[in-house]
Write a structure and sequence with these properties.
single chain, 29% helix, Dipeptide-binding Protein, domain 3, D-Maltodextrin-Binding Protein, domain 2, 513 residues, twelve-stranded mixed beta sheet, 15 helices, 23 strands
Length: 513
């Protein structure tokens, strides 16, 4: 504890020195914050940097209040109108939307059905994953109406339109990657990839001009630095704070901590290409080494919920709750059944080879490396040797170096639009965009394809529950916990709170004193 305190003080002193010496650190108007009292602005510090502002390629377009989708989800995860004021399904493969009148792009041109059609034509060209989920075959536009015809029955079509990459933007413009012209309350003033985004208010926003004049979104992957930036006043809102950094914030009257239950799950993903992990007993044994309540308490400081499957227990389709038991002795019994015995050094081996595993992790979510270290310590007690590799770009590493890792500490939104079909498709189907572990469970694949053509809500829930049951039996992942979204906020920020969906960060309603 003393060592951690000394480290934190050293980092704090360094940050104060760095901030004091940084003469070019200005607010969004290019002036020192101390001399710009009239400008209503905020600075938001986020964890995952954006390489592009193209809303069809990156989530930050919607998050930054620059772009919008036809529909959105509310706090209760119900789909609500946004750019579209109404819609109806007029056939099994036909969906018709009425676009609100009077909406304009940031250049003042009106948004009509044809503009929406052009935007979707582009997203289908540049984003294969969105095209795969929407399954659009053709579109027709007339006045304020846009009609989509899907290639096949697609009950999830409406919820997939919530995806941030399904944003409506103006397509006949230059520099979409740097300065997209969309419909949100803010437009891009300047964008430096992976560094910051400077936004200015769009005065003719259809839902009322924003209270703020400017917003500056900065990126930093270090959770402790984000926490210190909030304390120093360099940031008004700091996302994804590590639990261990909260005490100084909670002790300040001018700051507050928002802890919101998320739709995300932290888990261990097993590489199905590795012979060792193709053994169900080995996967079950590793799962039994995870003490979920302890991780919630010690690593997350209580800002999480134990996980027994991919979906948060509040969802009707989360499946039957299990005890998620921590049982090292049972883990050892399963490993013995798998053919492993301990050598003189106390290491497990089979056919003369010791049981060694490589766990990949990343700093973007600071609790994940701690979970990797926890597994390493628990595995060592039963004779498993684990090597931890920390990488910068986890997704590139997992896909491009599939032979180099056995397990990864991973994190995904599993029902970001209020439906479990998304995660089943992308994380378990052999060609899924979030399946670097190459999971391929035929029975689960069949259920997912059945779900994709089932419209009845009760039927969808039943299929998803069955899918969760198979996942629990086959253990392609070990689900650990559903983390809360931990956000530090300066009390000067008003009319704002983080949402569980992590989509709508910057709004026209947020304000400052």
């Amino acid at each position: 504890m003393l060592k951690n305190t000394i480290f934190f003080l050293i980092v704090s002193i360094f940050m104060v020195f760095l901030i004091g010496c940084d003469n070019h650190e200005k607010d969004v108007q290019g002036e020192d914050k101390s001399s710009s009292e009239s400008n209503k602005s905020i600075t938001l510090l986020f964890s995952f940097p954006s390489k592009t502002m193209d809303p069809h390629q990156d989530w930050m377009g919607v998050r930054a209040g620059v772009a919008e989708t036809l529909v959105k989800i509310d706090e209760d995860l119900n789909i609500q109108p946004w750019l579209a004021e109404s819609w109806e399904q007029t056939g099994e493969k036909t969906w018709t939307f009425q676009i609100r009148k009077g909406i304009t792009f940031h250049d003042g041109t009106l948004v009509d059905g044809e503009a929406v059609k052009e935007s979707f034509t582009r997203v289908l060209e540049v984003n294969e994953a969105v095209g795969s989920s929407l399954k659009i075959e053709s579109m027709e536009a007339e006045g304020q109406t846009i009609t989509f015809f899907t290639k096949e029955v697609n009950p999830a079509f409406l919820s997939e339109l919530v995806h941030t990459n399904a944003s409506v933007i103006k397509t006949d413009t230059d520099n979409i990657s740097e300065s997209p012209i969309a419909t949100g309350p803010f437009k891009v003033d300047h964008f430096t990839p992976e560094v910051d985004i400077k936004l200015e208010r769009y005065d003719d926003y259809w839902d009322g001009a924003a209270n703020l004049e400017h917003v500056n979104i900065k990126f930093n992957s270090d959770g402790n630095v984000r926490a210190l930036a909030l304390q120093s006043g360099e940031a008004d809102i700091a996302y994804h704070l590590p639990p261990e950094a909260l005490t100084p914030i909670e002790n300040r009257e001018d700051l507050r901590v928002e802890s919101v239950s998320s739709l995300r799950v932290h888990f261990m993903l097993y590489n199905a290409n590795k012979v060792t992990l193709q053994d169900l007993n080995v996967r079950k044994a590793l799962d039994l080494l995870i003490n979920r309540p302890i991780m919630v308490k010690e690593i997350m400081s209580g800002h999480a919920t134990s996980a027994f499957g991919p979906y948060h227990p509040d969802f009707a389709f989360s499946g039957e709750e299990t005890d998620a038991i921590y049982d090292p002795s049972q883990a050892e019994a399963l490993l013995k059944e798998a053919g492993y015995t301990k050598n003189d050094a106390g290491k497990l081996e089979k056919a003369g080879e010791t049981l060694q595993l490589t766990v990949a992790t990343y700093q973007g979510r600071p609790e994940l490396p701690l979970m990797a270290q926890y597994l390493q310590a628990e595995a060592a007690k039963v004779g498993i040797e684990i090597n931890i590799v920390t990488v910068e770009n986890i997704d590139s590493y997992l896909w491009e170096q599939q032979d180099d890792w056995d397990i990864v500490t991973y994190s995904n939104l599993t029902a970001p639009r209020g439906d479990g079909g998304y995660f089943l498709n992308v994380a378990y189907l052999p060609d899924g965009s979030l399946n670097p572990g190459q999971i391929n469970i035929p029975q689960l694949n069949d259920l997912t394809r059945q779900l994709n053509v089932t419209s009845d809500p009760e039927g969808r829930t039943a299929i998803q529950e069955n899918a969760v049951s198979i996942i629990q039996q086959e253990v392609p992942q070990s689900f650990i916990l559903h983390p809360h979204i931990i956000v530090g906020v300066n009390e000067r920020v008003k009319s704002w709170k983080p949402g569980s969906e992590e989509y709508y960060l910057i709004t026209n309603k947020m304000d400052v004193e």
